[in-house]
């Protein structure tokens, strides 16, 4: 992916992390040496959730589906430009 796409991905994840922080959610931006950055959130109950930003036909989306999932599930992604993306994600992951 071009450098511009990488910066866009990073920008979306940081913006989401800040919005989740405003909701009182513990967030960490994970920048691996190899691979794509992810936003890790710790819901009130349960295991940490990894959120990625992916460019799709409708623009950038956040997804939190398991890495092994092959199919998109409608309840596992939200458009990154949605003003209430943080609220939607927390409602879905049980925070």
Helix/strand class:
alpha+beta
Strand content: 25-35%
End-to-end C-alpha gap: 32 Å
Name the helix and strand elements from N-terminus to C-terminus, one letter apiece: HEEEEEH
The number of distinct helices, counting runs of at least 4 residues, comes to: 2
Low-confidence stretches: none
Largest sheet: 5 strands, antiparallel
Number of strands: 5
Strand order of the largest sheet: 1-2-3-4-5
Radius of gyration: 13 Å
Helix content: 25-40%
Mean pLDDT: 84
Describe the overall structure.
The chain is globular. α1 (3-22) packs across α2. A hairpin with a 7-residue loop joins β1 (26-30) and β2. The model has no long low-confidence stretch (mean pLDDT 84). It has one domain (3-93). Strands 1-2-3-4-5 form a 5-stranded antiparallel β-sheet, with helices on one face. It is of the alpha+beta class. The chain has helices at residues 3-22, 85-93, and strands at residues 26-30, 38-42, 49-56, 59-63, 77-79.
